[in-house]
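In this section we turn from sequence analysis to structure. A common task in structural bioinformatics is to predict how a protein folds when a small molecule is present, because the ligand can shape the pocket around it. The inputs are simple: the amino acid sequence and a SMILES string for the ligand, here pyridoxal-5'-phosphate. Study the lines below before reading on.
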Amino acid sequence: MTNNHDDAATAEGARRRFATHAVHTGQAVDEVYGAVVPPVHFSTTYAPDGIGNLRNGYDYGRAGNPTRTALQQQLAALEGGAHGFSFGSGLAAEDAVIRAAMRPGQRLVMGNDAYGGTYRLFARIHGEWGIANTPLDLADHDRVAAELEHDDATVLWVETPSNPLMNVTDIAALARIAHERGALLVVDNTFATPYLQQPLALGADVVVHSTTKYIGGHSDVVGGAVVLNDDDLAEKVAFQQFAVGAVSGPLDAYLTTRGLKTLAVRMDRHCANAQAIAEHFEGHAAIERVLYPGLASHPDHQLAARQMRGFGGMVSLQLAGGEPAARKVAEATRYFILAESLGGVESLMNYPHEMTHASVRGTELAVPENLLRLSVGIEDVADLIEDLEQALGGL
Ligand SMILES: *Cc1c(COP(=O)(O)O)cnc(C)c1O
């Protein structure tokens, strides 16, 4: 028996199941001191054994760092991919994918309900550098196929479930549509996490994450990830990471690894709490509509049940009292903290129209004014329900 469990590529590693990967992959017991938690390597530079003789391949911190390598192995194993890359933010990870996979003159086809910051990156940064984008309804497969018929449309970008409308997109169907037309399918798996949804196994070419959210899981570290199988594209992403340098620092990589170890148990609780809240408030007098794929009333419920292991921790509420009611409730909860972001252990409340999605106001990606987005935490769900009830009671 060995406890040097760091290599997912071994026969033993390949058999390992999700929660075991989460705890052990990339986390070999330290050979010098036997430390069960590998040390965090802060050094920016590495002494070779003489000129040109690197020890284990490390020379400089932008190019590589053992703490980052451990996280990248863990990310790749959990998404079931051959290559994992960790970045300083989710948007930095997305930018690296676009620059690795696309060239000026090409066009990106994307969902019209993508995260506002993603749209801003594509429209205002990549757009300026000659990469156009076409947002559309991803449920309209004929329209997606027709757009991808054009030679310049080389990448299809999917976010599912979407933020904050909780639409679910059929990854396997869109992978077929994209591949028949020579396009690449990228899936932003931030909301679902690899525990609930495995896009590569469903046919996607690339998975991206904001690890700031569920993967980090404690609202204390910003980061991003890219996982993929294709060796050539992986080399291009690696070159972006090295040559541009939007890497995660050692402490960020360590915190993300620590968060990832508990992803499976956290997600089970996030899912259970979100389901209970969605069921409790569906039909409530102050609520016009609850958007949660775990509800039988959700238009994509069957698809979500097929494609995901659980329905996730994000719930959106549309208030019967419109914008004034949404604003009032957003400021009246005790445990649901009014804040941007999502995926932490604590419950958060967001008013997307003016917070996370302010950058898409007035565009076709705009979010309804009566919508509140809940990131349901892992607290006792009875307290969370009471909290929302008292806030709605104040209307
Ligand atoms: C937050 C988020 C991003 C951006 O990630 P950052 O870590 O904030 O750069 C991308 N996609 C989704 C779905 C997100 O929620």
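The chain has 14 helices and twelve strands. As an exercise, try to locate the residues that line the pyridoxal-5'-phosphate site and compare them with your own expectations.
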